[in-house]
Design goal:
Blueprint (H helix, E strand, L loop, with lengths): L5 E5 L11 H12 L4 E5 L5 H8 L5 E2 L8 E2 L4 E4 L6 E4 L1 H11 L13 H27 L5 H13 L3 H4 L4 H20 L17 H16 L1 H8 L2 H12 L8
Parallel strand pairs: 1-2
Antiparallel strand pairs: 1-5, 3-4, 5-6
Helix pairs in contact: 1-3, 1-8, 4-7, 4-8, 8-9, 8-10
Length: 255
């Protein structure tokens, strides 16, 4: 059997399976749903910039705070070698757009109203991602591999001016942070389903990338902090988010 034409670059961990990052899961779920063959290359944090530069990948932002505004290279990324000239795509939305254009079967982005995706991501970042990141930075440090852990701790300390374990310490502070997470999921539930929690987020008969954004963050909690998943997230909104995970299990494979 020939090698897949697409290489997917992801971040390893001590978890089994290794895939944990919500940002990379956003793209992996799209590949799986669209049934596009690919192979995974695991890249530890200190090697991401060099790896992407070597294959021609573009930065996706600038390094915050003490990073001094230098270009920031992040995963996910894909390398498509199906044509005469290899194509590298970074950023999960750009990857989804590229895959929908090249492999139009099982589309994940709406053909109309393209502003929906960035608008939803801004909303999701504000109400779910930000409070969830606050409680997840500490546990996430502990699942990094030996190569990534010092780098991850140092860069997050530079970004947040605190060690990851200090951002949401156990006790009343952390309980307050989890209350904000609950509020965020309440707001999300009102936006994407209301009285019909069984429907897909965009209201159609098939999932879209919006569903996969939500699922990616749910996987992050479940894989990295399974006890808090069971206690704090799984029961939220009548078990709605756990049901969403179950509905998308077929696309949660790690190739």
């Amino acid at each position: 059997m020939s090698e897949p034409n697409i290489t997917f670059f992801d971040i390893p961990s001590l978890c089994k399976p290794q895939a944990w990052s919500p940002n990379t899961w956003k793209a992996r779920l799209v590949l799986n749903y669209k049934q596009i063959p690919y192979k995974t290359v695991w890249v530890s944090y200190p090697d991401i910039e060099e790896t992407l530069k070597k294959i021609g990948g573009k930065p996706t932002g600038v390094k915050p705070n003490k990073g001094g505004g230098a270009p920031l290279y992040t995963l996910p990324a894909i390398l498509d070698e199906s044509g005469d000239t290899p194509i590298v795509i970074t950023d999960s939305l750009a990857i989804a757009e590229y895959l929908d254009a090249k492999y139009p079967g099982r589309p994940v982005l709406p053909k109309k109203g393209t502003d929906l995706e960035p608008a939803f991501e801004k909303f999701f970042e504000r109400v779910v991602d930000e409070p969830l990141t606050t409680v997840m930075l500490g546990p996430t440090l502990e699942i990094q591999d030996a190569q990534s852990k010092p780098y991850w701790a140092r860069t997050r300390r530079d970004w947040y001016d605190l060690n990851p374990s200090e951002i949401s310490p156990e006790g009343p502070v952390r309980e307050g942070h989890w209350k904000e997470v609950e509020k965020g999921f309440d707001s999300l539930a009102e936006l994407v389903g209301g009285d019909n929690p069984g429907q897909w987020a965009a209201g159609g008969n098939e999932p879209t990338r919006i569903d996969f954004i939500i699922v990616a963050w749910l996987i992050w909690v479940k894989v990295v902090s399974p006890d808090e998943w069971e206690k704090r997230v799984k029961p939220l909104n009548g078990g709605r988010w756990n049901n969403l995970l179950k509905r998308t299990e077929a696309w949660q494979t790690v190739g």
